[in-house]
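Aim 2, interim progress. The first record below pairs a target sequence with its C-alpha cells.
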Amino acid sequence: MAYGKTVIDFIGNTPLVDASHLVAKEGVKLFLKLEGNNPGGSVKDRPAFNMINEALKRGDIKKGGTLVEATSGNTGIALAFIAKLLGVNMVLIMPENSTEERVKTMRAYGSEVILTSSEIGIEGSRDLAFKLRDEKGYALLNQFENNDNWMAHYKTTGPEIWEATNGEITHFVSAMGTTGTIMGVSTFLKEQNKNVTIVGAQPDDNSRIPGIRKWPEEYVPKFFDRSKVDQVIEVTEADAKETTQKLAKEAGVFAGMSSGGSVYCALKVSESIDKGVIVAVICDRGDRYLSSDLFE
C-alpha cells in the first residue's frame, strides 16, 4: 500500500481517462486529465506546492512567516492547506461573489480570508494583495508573475500526459486563467514534439466563467507567452455550463465550469480533424459549485 508523510505526497499523477465516446468520431481519441483527484481537489495543487516550496528553498519566505495571495478560488484552497503543512501562515484575498464552498474550505484549512467587492473582481483582489505586502510586510507569491507557477506543470503535468499517451498526443486543450497550466504543459510538449497543437479556452466578451479569464492588458500574467498557444477558442458561459453538465451525465466526470469550457473547445477541435489524440484538462471537482446554479 502506498503511503506518504502528508497529503502533499499525493499531488500529481492524476488519472487520464478515455472519453472518446463524447466525440464518436472514428480516428479521434479524447482523454480527460482529472486534476480534481489532487488532494486539494484541483490542478492548482501543483503550482501552489511548487511556489511555496521553491520560495522556502530560496529563503524568500521562512517558516512561521505570512504569505498573502489573491485568488479566485482553487489556488487559494491549494495554498491554504499546503502553507499550513509547510509551516507558513496564509492570508487569501478573493472577490465576495466566490462560491461559499471555496471560502469555507480555505478557512477550514486555517487561512485568513479577506473578501473584496465583486465590482472590482479579481483585479481588485490583486491590487489589495500588493497593498498588504507593502503595508504589513507579508510575502507575496504573485501567482500571475511567478515562474514557479508554470514550472510546476513543466515538471509534472506535461511529462505525465506525454507518458500516459505514449507520446501520441496531437492536441492539448486547457482553460486559460493564470495561464500557468497551458504555459508549462506547452513548453514541455513542444520540446518532445513541436507539432503538438496547443489550444487555449477563453470566454467571449459577454461571459463570466470561473477559472477562465480574458484579462485586461495591464493584468495579463507576466509569464504568458502567446507564441506557445497555437489556437485560442472562445466559449460562451452557456456552452461551458452545458458541457459541464454533459460531462457529469455522459462521462461521470463531476467538474467545474472551466472544465466544461476546456472540453467544449476540445470537442470543437475534434470536429476539425479526422485523426488525433486530444487531451483536455479537467481543472477541479464540481462539489465546490453546488451553491451556484451550475447544475440547475
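The second target in this work package is listed in the same format:
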Amino acid sequence: MHKNVTFKNPWLPYLLVLPQMAVTIVFFIWPAAQALKQSFLVEDAFGLSSEFVWFDNFVALFTDPAYYEVMINTALFSIGVTVVTMVVAMLLAVMADGVLRGKRTYQLLLTWPYAVAPAVAGVLWLFLFNPSNGVLALALRTIGYNWNHYLNGEQAMALVITAAAWPRIAYNFIFFLAALQSIPRSLIEAAAIDGAGPARRFFSVMFPLLSPTTFFLVVVNLVYAFFETFGVIHTVTQGGPGTATEILVYKVFKDGFIGLDLGSSAAQSVVLMVIVIGLTAIQFKYIERKVQY
C-alpha cells in the first residue's frame, strides 16, 4: 500500500523546487535560447549590428570540410577518454576492493586526483611530456621513441586524452568501488566454490551486476568529454598541431572569442548540444535495454 505525501500548504512543493528551477533557467535554458537565437544572426565583432540570415550559419558549417575533421577529432577524443577512464577505474576498483590491509588509504589516494581541475591536470601532463625536459618524454627517448606532441598530431591526441582522463578516473573509481561493495559476497563465494577463477567470477558474476553503474558512467563520461574538457585542450595543445586536437567545444571558443564570428560560434554550440542530446537519447533507448537492474 502506497501512502501519498501531502503538504499542508499547497505552495510549499513549488517553493522547494524553486531554487533548482531558477538555476536551471538562468544557467541552462536561457543561455541555450540565446545561442539558438544568435545562430540565425550575422553580427559584427562588437555586437552593434546584426542581420537575420536564417540557416546560413548552419549551411556554412556543414559545407566546410574542416568542420567534419573537427567532428572526427571529437569522436576519437570522447571515445578515448570514456574507454580509458572506465577501464582503468574498473581495474583499480577491483584491485582496491580486494585489499585487506590499508584499504582506506588506497581508496583515499586513488580518489585525490578528482580534486584537480582539468586545466591544472593539463598543465601537469604538459610538463611531464615536454619534448625538451619532460620526465616522461626523456624516458621515452631513452628507449628510442622520439616524443614531440608539438609536431606529431597522434601524440598530441594521446596526450590530451591522457590529461583529460586522469582526473576523471577517480570519479569513475568512486562509483565502481561503491557498486562492487554492494554486491553480496555470498554470490562471489558461491562462484568460487563452484570452481570459477578470478576472471570468470568477474565477467560472469560481478560485471553483469555492475551494468547500471557502467551505463550511468558511459553517459556522464561522454558528456564530460564533449563539454568539460575545454581547459585541457586550451592549456595543452590549443587545438594543435594544426587542427589535430581541435574538438567541437574548443572550436566554438576559437571561432567565437578569437575569430569573433559570433553567429557561426552560436550555430556550432547548437549543433554540439543536439549531438550530445541525441547520443544520450540513443543510449537510453538502446543501450539501457541491456542493463540488468
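The chain has a mean pLDDT of 88. This observation will shape the mutagenesis plan for the next reporting period.
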